[in-house]
Design goal:
By secondary structure, this protein is an alpha/beta fold. 43% of the residues lie in helices and 14% in strands. The strands form two sheets. The chain has a six-stranded mixed beta sheet with strand order 1-2-3-4-6-8, with helices on both faces. It has a two-stranded parallel ribbon with strand order 5-7.
Length: 263
């Protein structure tokens, strides 16, 4: 799937703007609080495949008063034209697994250390919306944000890659509590728990993210990517000795590249 398909972004309810080193992905279905569908995830995956090496920071945002209210509820009401997610329970397991893996691909590329990803989150970030924000490296939130992992309350589980970054951000015990109670986490608590880098008034969200995105591309591209990879490895549980070895290897590659004049 590529962006060469003319209406892929439109079907997915997304817009994409690439300006130099920055790409901005906007969820653009404000009338539905930017609810997500499989087309949304396909379009996200296609964007990830299409971005060139010159793009060093990706901002994910939502139009209107909410970031994303999560899964489009129409998917819980099957029709002949749209069987809905319940249909995954009636097909062979390997087919269902492959389908969900395709959905996850729309989110997983956002954690690639080749670039920094930032979620600008206002209003509702529910279920799939929460998981989309969690897929990004950094989250800046408006003071009206409401994070909620709603899936368990609906009888399903978070399956768009949200469990890993949630536990990594807040720890196992707090992740259990957030997921199983389905409660909402506001801006102040999100910053305290490490779910958000900072919280700002809603009217200042875009400006705060613009400032951050500009600062994030100030380091030379190859050094930034190498540093991201080191930090990601530590966050993923790399032991101290392995982290030291990774730093040595990365630094040797950097110095050789600089000595060769290749940046």
């Amino acid at each position: 799937m590529t962006l060469a398909e003319p209406d892929l972004l439109q079907r997915g309810g997304l817009t994409l703007d690439v300006a130099g080193a920055r790409a901005t992905i906007s969820l653009s279905r404000p009338d539905s609080l930017n609810a997500q569908t499989p087309d949304t995830w396909a379009a996200l995956a296609a964007i990830g495949e299409s971005l060139g090496e010159e793009v060093r920071v990706v901002v994910v945002r939502g139009e209107g008063r909410s970031f994303s209210a999560g899964l489009d509820r129409s998917l819980f009401t099957p029709t002949p034209e749209r069987p809905g997610i319940a249909a995954l329970g009636t097909v062979p397991e390997d087919e269902a697994d492959l389908t969900i893996a395709g959905y996850q691909a729309g989110f997983s590329w956002l954690r690639d250390p080749a670039r920094v990803t930032v979620a600008a989150v206002q209003g509702h970030a529910i279920g799939g919306g929460f998981q989309l924000a969690l897929a990004c490296d950094l989250r800046v939130v408006a003071d009206d944000v409401q994070f909620c992992m709603a899936e368990p309350k609906l009888g399903i589980v978070p399956d768009l890659g949200g469990t890993y970054p949630l536990v990594r951000a807040v720890g196992y015990a707090r992740a259990v509590e957030i997921c199983l109670t389905g409660r909402r986490v506001g801006a102040t608590e999100a910053v305290e728990l490490g779910l958000a880098l900072r919280a700002v008034p809603a009217a200042e969200l875009d400006a705060a993210v613009d400032e951050l995105a500009t600062a994030l591309v100030s380091a030379p591209p190859k050094a930034a990517a190498a540093t991201l990879a080191l930090l990601s490895g530590v966050a993923d549980g790399l032991d101290p000795a392995s982290a030291l070895a990774a730093e040595r290897a990365a630094q040797v590659r950097r110095l050789r590249s600089l000595a060769a004049g290749t940046g």
